[in-house]
Amino acid sequence: MRTKMVAGNWKMNKTLQEGVALATELKEAVKNPSCAVVIGTPFIHLASVAELLKGSPIKVAAENCADKEKGAYTGEVSAAMVKSTGAEYVILGHSERRAYYHEDYAILREKVLLALENGLKPIFCIGEVKEEREAGKQNEVVKAQLEGSVFNLSAEEWKNITLAYEPVWAIGTGLTATPEQAQEMHAYLRSLVAEKYGKEAADNTTILYGGSCNEKNAAELFANPDVDGGLIGGAALVAEKFLAIIAAR
Ligand code: PGA
Q1: What is the distance in A from the centroid of ligand 1 to the CA of 72?
Q2: Which of 15, 39, 108, 192 is deepest in the core (most CB within 10 A)?
Q3: CB-based contacts of 67, cutoff 8 Å, min separation 6
């Protein structure tokens, strides 16, 4: 049985003090969740939040890591450095990284490999923009994203990958994908994984939905057989909302 998961993506929000306060609130409320719970925080929060969540079922994710191992890359944070904070996951391939920081297939391929080499589990994001959906090209877009950056992995490495389908037109817009659209795409993604790594690997792959998933629509989205949980942006910044989404899973 694959892991069900609710993961938060705080993006560039919360000072360190605000982040620690939110993580503390979540820790107090999440004792025995029925799914895996992960919070993705800015780099500067990782060590403090991982430390305070010791003994809690909540795990910590970085929102990025460098595509280089170490050295003279001013301002970058390596996968080894992320791992040393106590974080277990790293969100990679988010559409904001692709669009604003020019992360292409090759860069993401390096990031995924370095994350895995350093014992981090990637939450790998894929998804089409509005024009691509309108042109009916969403399937070919996500297939190219997988082939470009993660289908080079071995079957053994694949076991550490979580996928997040995040249609770009749904992120932060309030235009959530319908449960039917999410299910259709997740089933397609699972079929691609099955073609590449076999049916068992596909059945064991966790595929999250992200894009204006909130406390009101989460249950309906999660009710679909191929939607294993959510990657939550805005609604992960408010404890009450994030907790309601966890409860919906
Ligand atoms: P959103 O963001 O929930 O605010 O739409 C999701 C994401 O970008 O991961």
Answers
A1: 32
A2: 39
A3: 107, 108, 110, 111, 114
> Does 166 participate in catalysis according to the annotation?
yes
Q: pTM for the full model?
A: 0.98
Verify whether ligand 1 is closer than 6 Å to residue 236 (CB atom).
Answer: no
Containing domain of residue 192, as a range?
A: 5-248
Answer whether 151's CB lies under 8 Å from 197's CB. no
Q: Is 172's C-beta closer than 6 angstroms to any atom of ligand 1?
A: yes
- Our count of domains for the chain comes to 1
71 Cα to the center of ligand 1, angstroms = 32
Q: CA-to-CA distance for 190 and 208, rounded, in angstroms?
A: 11
Whichever domain contains 41, its CATH number is 3.20.20.70
The SS3 of residue 29 is: helix
Q: Is ligand 1 within 6 A of the CB of residue 99?
A: no
Q: What's the pLDDT tens digit per position in 40-93?
A: 999 999 999 999 999 999 999 999 999 999 999 999 999 999 999 999 999 999
Q: Which of 94, 96, 132, 186 is catalytic?
A: 94
